[in-house]
Amino acid sequence: MDTTKTTNIQFDSINISSLKSVVNIYQSKVKDSENKFAKSSSHFGLPLSIASFDNRVIGYAFVAINKAGKPEINSYWEQEFYSVEVEQDLKFHAQNAFFTAFKDPETRTNKIQNAAEKLFNWLNVCN
Questions:
Q1: CB neighbour class for 39 (10 Å; exposed up to 12, middle 13-18, buried from 19)
Q2: N or C: which end of the chain has fewer CB within 10 A?
Q3: What are the φ and ψ backbone dihedral angles of 49, each rounded to 5 degrees?
């Protein structure tokens, strides 16, 4: 992406109106995936923040539980908008949302897994 455009990218918390765009980005990432877990709540994760450009969602950051059983923040993007700098900014925004929503380290993993699973199942019902 042209770095002159990165100043126009805005970061915001996830909300119900941005979920359709988030799902579309996710689906484009997994449609050709060989990964058998690609269409699961553990792969989808729990979206926390979005990046938008010209009122269009171009990427989102989510928390998922990694193989070590720890929360990990990742992101998916529309390919033409991806840059390392913008990804870092989005993940920073998501990290702030994460620590606000999941303050207790003792219950964090279970809460993330439950929320991600409920959201994923709800989205599948709505789809």
A1: middle
A2: C
A3: -145, 155
Q: Model confidence over 12-45: pLDDT tens digits? A: 999 999 999 999 998 888 776 655 445 677 778 9
Rounded to 5°, angle at Cα 100 from 96 and 103: 120
- How many Å apart are CA 48 and CA 36, to the nearest integer? 24
Number of H helices, E strands in the chain: 4, 4
- Which run of H or E residues covers position 93? helix 84-101
Q: What is the pLDDT of residues 86-109, one digit of tens each?
A: 999 999 999 999 999 999 989 999
Q: Which of 123, 122, 99 is nearest to 111 (CA)?
A: 99
Q: How far is 50 from 10, CA to CA, in rounded Å? A: 8
Q: What is the pTM of this model?
A: 0.86
Question: At a CB cut-off of 8 Å and minimum separation 6, what does 38 contact?
Answer: 29, 30
